[in-house]
C-alpha cells in the first residue's frame, strides 16, 4: 500500500530502495523557503543499518504489512536461538543478533512474536514485562530515603537493574524488558 511521505509514523515498516525499514523517529519540518518535508530516521530490518531520509508530501513510499506469528523459545545453541512454531511444532533457529539486548530476558517456554516478511523472520518481540528473581542486591545505606534512591541488583539472568531500597535478595520482581527497569514486586 502506497502512502504519502507526510503520512509516515514511527513504527511503520517501509519498503525503501530495495530494503525493509522500520521507522524509528519522524520530524515534520516546514522551512521558511520551499515546501514542507518529513525527516525520517529508519533502521534496516535485514542488516541493521540506520539512515535519515527526507520525504516531501509529493513523495510516496510503499508501506509493508508484516505477518506476526507466535513461537515458543526452546533453547540457545551457540550464537543461535531455537524457537518452535506453536501451530505446527516446526523448529526454527535464529541468530541472537536478531533480538539484541533483550535476549538476556528469554526464559524457557516463553512465547514470543516473530514478524515475518516473505516467510522469513526479520524481528522478534518479547513480552513487554517479565518476572525475575533477584539473586544479589546491595545493602541499604542508612539515611537514604525510599522516594529518591534506588540500589543496584542482579537478576537470575545476570542482568543488572536498579530497585527500591526495600527490595532484597530472593524477591521476585517484574521488569520492563526493553527499558531494563524495575516495574514492581511480583504478586
Describe the structure.
With 187 residues, this protein is mainly beta. The protein has three domains: 2-63, SH3 type barrels; 67-125, Nucleic acid-binding proteins (OB fold (Dihydrolipoamide Acetyltransferase, E2P)), CATH 2.40.50.140; 129-185, Beta Barrel (OB fold (Dihydrolipoamide Acetyltransferase, E2P)), CATH 2.40.50. It is built from no helices and 16 strands. It has strands spanning 2-4, 13-16, 19-29, 37-44, 50-56, 60-63, 67-77, 80-85, 91-95, 111-117, 120-125, 129-137, 151-155, 160-163, 172-176, 181-185. A six-stranded antiparallel sheet has the order 1-6-2-3-4-5, with no helix packed on it. The protein has a five-stranded antiparallel sheet with strand order 9-8-7-10-11, with no helix packed on it. A five-stranded antiparallel sheet has the order 14-13-12-15-16, with no helix packed on it. It is flat and about 60 Å long. The protein starts with a strand and ends with a strand.
Q: Topology of this protein?
A:
Blueprint: E1 2-4, E2 13-16, E3 19-29, E4 37-44, E5 50-56, E6 60-63, E7 67-77, E8 80-85, E9 91-95, E10 111-117, E11 120-125, E12 129-137, E13 151-155, E14 160-163, E15 172-176, E16 181-185
Antiparallel strand pairs: 1-6, 2-3, 2-6, 3-4, 4-5, 7-8, 7-10, 8-9, 10-11, 12-13, 12-15, 13-14, 15-16
